Structure formats: C-alpha cells, structure tokens
Amino acid sequence: MPAATKEGSWTEEEAKCVKIITDAAKGSNGYYPRNYSFCYDATHYVARWVAYPMHSYYTSGSYNDAEFYQDPSFTTDEQIGWTFSYDVDTGNGTTTDYDRGHQIAKAQRTVTDLARKQTNYYTNMTPQYWSLNQQNWQQLEAKERGEWMCNDTLYMVSGCHFDNYDFTIPNRDGKTCPVPTHYFKVMLRTKSGNTGKKVQECSADELICAGYWVTNSSKAVPQIKSVAEIEQLTGFTFFVNVPNAPKSTYTASDWE
Predict the structure, then answer these.
(1) CA 116, CA 118: separation in Å to the nearest integer?
(2) Whole-model pTM?
(3) CB count, 10 Å around CB of 64?
(4) What is the DSSP letter of 85?
(5) What are 85-106's pLDDT values in tens digits?
(6) Second-level CATH architecture of 3-254
C-alpha cells in the first residue's frame, strides 16, 4: 500500500484509507483477502490511489454486474451521485465528455458477484475523459489481466493527480466535482513470474517495476516512467513494504 507525503494543499492524513474485503479466494486461516485498498479524498469525491493484487484467480468466473452502488464506508454526501454521466455544459445544452472512469477496472474482478460489485462503488470512480477511459487507459487495464499477469502476484496501484482544482464539472445530484489533471499506474511483480515467493522476500534482481503517467485529455498517450519518477510527480511513496523494489530503473519492453 502506498504512503504519501505533502501534495500541494492536500495530504493523505486528510483522507480515509479503506481496505475492501471480498468473498474471493478465502484463505486457509479463514480470512478473506482484500479485493483492493484505497485512499479516499471525500472533499474532492475521488480515491487518490487504489492498490490491488492481480492474479488469474480474480479474473476467472463470469460475473458481470453493471450497476453502480454507493460505497457503504462513506455517506452519500462524501461520494459522487447516482447517475452514470458527468455532464459538461457546452452552452448549447449538455454533453457527456467525461466517463466515470474506474480506478480498478470492473473487468479485473469477475470471480464472484461481490468482487465485481465492489469495483462499481462510486468511490472507485473519477471524471475521466471518455476517449482516454475507453481507449489508451483501457489498453493498460487489458495488460494488467493479460501479458503483465503471472503465476506470482502482480501488484498494481492506479490513481489520479491534481496539479490544480480549477476545472470542475457538475454532477446531476448537485455536487461540483474537480477533474483530475493526470492519472497514473505503477506495477510490481517478480521478473520470472514463477518464483513462488513473496515480493518482500525477493532480491532487486528478481523484481521488476515501472509506471505510466498520462494527462486527462482526449488524445493523451500514457508515458512509461520509473516508479521513482511517478513518486516525484505525485508525492506518494509506493511499495513501502518491498525494500528491494528497483523503483529507479525499468525495462520498457517488460511493460509495453
């Protein structure tokens, strides 16, 4: 789970960190592992980051709940409203230039009904430009459950970033929603993908990690960067419990 330092006028201490538990993959100790964890900024109605494991278990099954739900961890006033589209006033009526972009994609959790439902909580959604959400961002999500995934666990963090809060869009329930200026993903896994070891037990040579950074706009292309570069851009510190994570280096071909 990431930790955070100062980011403009906002710090992680002003937000609420939540661990979402799912009925998927019950452990031998009787506990259910997390579906995902997130750090929620109720002032701006967004999760600043969402951290989640990726493994073929979670993408097995065929659950396909398309409804949206209020997150029971928060009040109605603390999360975006009850309709799908973010409407933007064009002066000639309205247009829906922004989707409710999922931080953890709903396609990443098809193993059970509850696991899928939890990705459709409003707290997992942000105002993301529709063509980014449905094209380049979606392509990265496909890689999470495709070529990036391995027999060992792939660890993902997706998040949004605000250089400023100047651009806002109205929600249909009357809330004014700031629009993120950027989005990011960071990824960590074992290099071979078949060690059978926890990432905390691996040497730096056994691990690979990298990140993607993209502007929230219509034609933006995600740019691959080191995890250290994403940390500098966001003010967050990622993979704090993996001391050997090679956050300053990456091999682009591992993630393209």
Answers:
(1) 5
(2) 0.90
(3) 10
(4) P
(5) 565 655 555 566 888 899 999 9
(6) 3-Layer(aba) Sandwich (3.40)
